[in-house]
Amino acid sequence: MKRIYSQWMHDWENKLCFRATNRVVRPFEWGLEWTANWPVARMHPKNGHDPETYFRLLNRLAVEHSDTFFGYEKPRDFRVDERMLRFTSAVHTPYPENNVVHGQWYPAVEKPGRKRVAAIVLPHWNASATQHGALCAGMAKLGISALRLSLPYHDYRMPPELQRADYAVSSNVGRTVDAARQAVIDTRSCADWLEQQGYEEIGLVGTSLGSCYAYLASAHDTRFRVNVYNHCSTYFADVVWIGLSTRHIREGLEQAIDLECLRDAWMAISPPSYRDRYAALNKKSLFIYAEFDTTFPLHLSREVVEHARETNLDHKSVKLPCGHYTLGEWPFKFIDGYHICAFLKRHLGKS
């Protein structure tokens, strides 16, 4: 029965993954122009380096000086209109749409005498503007206000020439790093707004790509004491190289680069680079992963959980009997939602 179930799940995952017919294989690009505004590039300008060597250098500096790399000036133009938070991203890109951050706001009905708590929700790669809305609404009913962030190059922030959020993760090495840095800074900026509204504790929920962004943000911001990583993995490069849904990106990358080099070029946006930093912080973490995941391969998710155990993180792990895409299908999405909401309800506002 286990073998039959595994094959059924594998077939279902493939069906859901490849129903998208608009994936584009883009040519490999180092994207050196995207490094110009990184603080570490100002520390060490390019001086005769070949692109590969320079990206290794910048990533090493970014990890060593990560507070600076993920640092920012707080936005000053927060505005809310019809439950949509908007503000100018602290990271400037050539795309005007992407420079405006959008956060869908789901305020909870608050009860006197209780702490005001909220959570920022970071969706998965290529999520539509409506996805994760039901999760946010459910959180609000439990007394947890929710702010769903549109990731860089997604939904409201997508440049008009795109059909998918290709600029967030692609075979352009520099742009992919820049998008991750922007996502981290936008997330921290959302926490600034929540603090201004009087919220006393702020949780963080990230799914898939959003999970990676959430980990990077939490490792650099003590305000995110309660964290949910919905699909967890290790190196950014390994997921792209091995994962089922990123085969088209690998096709572009392997024209000019191998996995080892790519891992170094994306080290600054890989969670393992900040494991020790994260472990030193007093955080509660929920790691959710899927037994039949071919997008975030199972062995990579297990590494995350094993490291959490080895470092005695205050954490809980949940393995669901589905895959990456099927997690969004009945009945798994309801089981997943239960674990997320129960963890937040149990820990937010209890310090």
Q: Your description of this structure?
A:
- It is built from 13 helices and 9 strands.
- It is an alpha/beta fold.
- Strands 1-2-3-5-4-6-7-8-9 form a 9-stranded mixed sheet, sandwiched between helices.
- Helix 12 (298-310) links the parallel strand 8 (284-290) and strand 9 (314-320).
- Helix 8 (236-242) runs antiparallel to helix 10 (259-265).
- It is globular, with a radius of gyration of 19 Å.
- The relative contact order is 0.14.
- The model has no long low-confidence stretch (mean pLDDT 96).
Which SSEs are present, and which pair or pack?
Blueprint: H1 2-17, H2 39-43, H3 51-64, H4 66-69, E1 79-81, E2 84-88, E3 100-106, E4 117-122, H5 133-141, E5 145-149, H6 173-196, E6 201-207, H7 209-219, E7 224-230, H8 236-242, H9 247-253, H10 259-265, H11 275-279, E8 284-290, H12 298-310, E9 314-320, H13 332-347
Parallel strand pairs: 4-5, 4-6, 6-7, 7-8, 8-9
Antiparallel strand pairs: 1-2, 2-3, 3-5
Please describe the structure with a list of short key phrases separated by commas or semicolons.
alpha/beta, 351 residues, 9-stranded mixed β-sheet, 13 helices, globular, single chain
Helix-strand makeup class: alpha/beta
> How many helices in DSSP terms?
13
* Radius of gyration (Å): 19 Å
> Which outline best applies?
globular
Spans of at least 5 consecutive residues whose pLDDT stays below 50 are none
End-to-end Cα distance, whole Å, is: 45 Å
Query: What portion of residues is helical?
Result: 25-40%
* Average pLDDT over all residues: 96
| Count of distinct strands | 9
Strand content: 15-25%
The neighbouring-strand order within the major sheet is: 1-2-3-5-4-6-7-8-9
Order of helical and strand elements? HHHHEEEEHEHEHEHHHHEHEH
Major β-sheet annotation: 9 strands, mixed
